[in-house]
Amino acid sequence: MFSLYGSANAGEDGGDANDENSVSQNQSIYMSAQGDSNLKESNSLYMSALEVIKEVPSPLPPKEHSQKLSFYGYTTILLAAVGGLLFGYDIGVIGGCLTLDGFRSTMGWPEATDECGPDRPPEPYNVSFEIGWITSAFMFGCFVASPFAGALSDKTGRWVSVLSGTVLFFVGGALQTATNGVALMIVGRAVSGVSIGILSAVVPLYIAECSPSNLRGALVTLHQLGITFGILFAFCVNLFVERVVDTSWDWRLSLGFQCVIALFMALGMLMMPESPRYLTWKGRTDEAKRVLRKLRGADQEEAVLAELREIEEEVAAQKASINCSKGDEDGPPNSGWRELFSRKLALNVLVGVLIPTISQCSGINAIMLYSATIYNDMCLDGIAMTAVVGAVNFGFTFGAVFLSDRLGRKPLLLTGALGMFLALILSATILWTTDHATNKAAGDAVVFLILFFIANYASTWGAVASWIVPSEVFPLRIRGKAVGLATMGNWLANVVVAFVTPIMLRPDVADVSGTFLLYASFMFLAIPFVALLLPETKGVPLEEMEEKFSKPIGDHVRSNVRELCTAGSSLRSRRNNKAQEPQGPDL
Q: What would you report as the CA-atom Rg of the chain, rounded to the nearest whole angstrom?
């Protein structure tokens, strides 16, 4: 979608940005086009107005003046990222609880076996299925809530949706902590899942809409950083209660701590603002301006006005291009769901939904949920190894934070998919062909490869595929619903992974090696999908994202191939230039 002010040219003519006559002329043309009662019914008139406006010099300031975020802005985004911490904590905490004797006794299960290796006795079938239900109930709650989360955020706002999800998480955590059996545990996990289904859809959207375009990728990855820190924190809490507390109710401490985190986030959200883009869409422009001033800083008035104009232009253009609800032009369009599944947005939906779904089919949550079980089966200390897994996962997520806006989304996804594929294939081969219980070198190699897999995922797909891509590839008018749909696909894959993994890990089914081979196949398919269908979105303003997906499928694929080849040539050229730089004199 082109901006009504030709924002692609913003910053090229700094003098025009301060020309009052230019601004006045531009605004009068814009108001005339906006006020035409036939604009929504006449596409030709709309395009004519668009062409006239594009010829007027842009009033936007140079681009470098719109790249800052205030202390309040960073605080807002960091607090929203605590929603990711809640998600990560709930994922990480349950895996350790499944191996604690007090938890297993409360669930009516036998104590975990001390035997390991391929000849270990499997869990009773009813225990395997109940473990699958407990872990997948959380994912199922996420799956059920995520498609409605987008519509909820469009109707009530991003802020209200985040606060509602946080309160609901507190309720789910309390039910899990107070459980007396499998049934109540499943209910508590499902309620927490509904909460995370809302938060995982809305938090990245909220962060993206509060962020300047040049920082958006790094700031959205803070959500993934929160997830990985939550997983690490949960693993450490489990290790602490196992080694230090060691009572029949130690697992209740692990599960209860998530309520403390949720309470902290809920209180903090009371001081946070609504998204300025959502406020503009609802017609609350003055409030959006005040929020932008707080997010960008008091000394950024020119950049704030320029950014607000760009947001207003996009809102006006999108409302002019669709049929809005009669009498409610400030609200979301009633054709949102219909347009979401139209041919016009087919590529946006295909990329925005399938990339996060493939991310979960990598097997990352199979390792995170069942890492203690996997390592116990390999004759290692499962609880202790989960802390190592969590540390690697958290540490390498900083790679995505620093690289997503430097190298771009596409290079990270391609290199990450290749690295994960190799790690899973090699791990499966070693586990299949050696007795890792007696062969220490083989066991050490598998441990290294699993950690290498996690490092690749955390620094690439974890943040970029799961949160950045779906938060930025959809147009504003359907972004809330579309992100909800993308998150729904994400959670559907998670439900399947969480339920089938404990069954597949049984030595009489697929064991660890066969499970790894299955997940490796998805990474193999991911490489051509990303290379051919995902355009580079680094630094592209949200208001201009629709244009990136507007070509026919054949042209779209060819454009992506050329873009990939150009990026490779540029990288080689930079390397050659660096190699040819004259060296300093020898001392």
A: 25
Number of Cβ within 10 Å of residue 299's Cβ equals 10
**Cβ neighbours of residue 416 under 8 Å, at least 6 residues apart?**
456, 457, 459, 460, 461, 464
The residue assigned the tokens 């949706």 is 161
- Residue (of 22, 27, 8, 14) closest to 57 by Cα position: 22
Main-chain dihedrals φ then ψ at residue 292, nearest 5 degrees: -60, -40
- CB within 8 A of 410, min separation 6: which ones? 530, 531, 534, 535, 536, 563, 564, 567
User: Are the C-beta atoms of residues 480 and 339 closer than 8 Å to each other?
Assistant: no
CA 384 to mean position of chain CA atoms: 28
In a 13 Å sphere around the CA of 296, the CA atoms on its Cβ side amount to 26
Nearest to 240 by CA among 384, 381, 107, 101: 384
Query: What is the amino acid identity at position 63?
Result: K
What is the reported pLDDT for 510? 87
Split at pLDDT 50, 70, 90, the class of 2 is: very low
Tokens matching residue 343: 């041919």
| CB atoms closer than 10 angstroms to residue 477 | 26
pTM: predicted TM-score of the whole model, two decimal places: 0.71
| pLDDT tens for each residue of 230-248 | 999 998 998 898 888 877 8
- The whole-number pLDDT of residue 252 equals 94
Helical ranges in 324-439 per DSSP H: 336-340, 346-360, 364-377, 382-403, 409-433
Separation CA 387–CA 454 (nearest Å)? 13
Classify the phi-psi angles of 211: left when phi > 0, otherwise alpha if psi is within -120 to 50, otherwise beta.
beta
Q: pLDDT digit string (tens) for 34-59? A: 444 443 444 443 344 334 334 444 44
Write the CB contacts of 221 (distance below 8 Å, at least 6 apart in sequence). Answer: 397, 400, 401, 404, 463, 464, 467, 468
Q: CB–CB of 466/356 below 8 Å?
A: yes
